[in-house]
Amino acid sequence: MISVSKNPGPSAWNDLLPEREPLPSLSSTLTSDWLIVGAGFAGLSAARRVQQEAPNDSIVILDAQGLASGPAGRNSGFMIDLPHDLASDDYGGQIENDREAITQNRYAINFAKETVEALQLPKECFKEIGKINGAATAKGMRHNHDYGKHLSKLGEKYEYLDANSMKDITGTNYYDGGLFTPGTVMIQPALYIRSLGEKILSNRVRLYESSPVEELNKVGSDWQAKTPKGVITASKVILAVNGNIENFGYFKNSLLHVYTYGSITQKLTPEEIKSLGGRKEWGLTPADPLGSTVRRICGTGGDRIVIRNRFTYEPKMSPRKSVIEKVYRTHIKSFSDRFPMLKDIKLMQTWGGHLTLSRNNVAAFGEIKPGLFAACCQNGLGTVKGTLHGLAAADLAMGKKTALVEQLLNNPKPKKLPFKPLTKIAVSSRIKLGELLAGKEL
Ligand SMILES: Cc1cc2nc3c(=O)[nH]c(=O)nc-3n(C[C@H](O)[C@H](O)[C@H](O)COP(=O)(O)OP(=O)(O)OC[C@H]3O[C@@H](n4cnc5c(N)ncnc54)[C@H](O)[C@@H]3O)c2cc1C
Q: Which amino acid residue places its CA nearest to atom 51 of ligand 1?
């Protein structure tokens, strides 16, 4: 039976939103032109692309959980247009690769923007406000300067911010400087996924929540998926299940299952907002990729701060409870160091989510068996790469050999991992050392 990765803690972005009536789970035997497994960024983008390009085709989307309960609704909501290689020192890579990545990322962001407009998703879920790389150490400042030089070579716009400007924006004097780039879109991830999953529905597009695919088999020229109470047969299937693709038997021993963790404060009172100061909304990624991402948000659910840090390697896709407890303590420290003026504020919820990386920073993408397509392994930037791989997998499956599809097919496959105990030692110690060296950036 195919298992599904565990995501510990509440889906806190979802909890900020009004309760909704869940969509039904699959409880019958159906046939459809398309089956899309996974209703995250990849699955919903694939469905949207097919809906646009093959409007007469029927599409069924299945997700094991409720909409936005999985990683797609648990992330920090940075849709980043620029290179974001988590394994590098400063997110940058080789110039030619980065140019291609920027073009692809912007294509995906634009697709998301057009979808938001066309389906009239709430404006609150998609804000084009850019982001800052915050530096709290001399090393962080050097990373930012290296990244700035790299962006100059790429011809990209950016602005250095000094400590005063950082305080004016964030309210805290924790940061020595920052690097602002305008192209990042800040999303409310649960609102984006929930509203996209609901607005995409039509008489041709159906979505079933709480419907884990437990078996997927080839039957004649079709594919047949079984859920606990239903069966669906389709000629084309897109697996948009991120690291769970390994549980379907594909890309085995090639994907790194890493978890990262977020916490959100209780709602700030008007007095707390005043003592914090700064702008009402901003997003900050750490100058050191292993540091803390911090966001100030407002809107449905009130004014709050969201913090994300720590990575753990979880090859079994199920972190132990004690991990969350440890992470929570780190979050409290990272939060109180940055915001001493908010000493009475509690981190209301802490959660974790599964992300999937490959050693060579490429996706698990393509036609893996006749009629079976993969749009998985987003290397930590799944809001953008998930969108990109989802729409491109749909194009590939519809027989459209676009330039993007060609580029993705030309990429190498995710590199095989060394034998398991070695991978565990190598990845866990790389994370531990990186977090230690991140110092105040954590
Ligand atoms: C705390 C945190 C912060 C993050 N911050 C950011 C950020 O700021 N920016 C960014 O770009 N990325 C961020 N990420 C990563 C991002 O969330 C993921 O990369 C992204 O969600 C991947 O999208 P996806 O659609 O490929 O997969 P997922 O979002 O993982 O969706 C896959 C779906 O498949 C379903 N599924 C799996 N198996 C089955 C099955 N057998 N049957 C049916 N359904 C199944 C799952 O339930 C899930 O809903 C963050 C992640 C976390 C955890």
A: 75
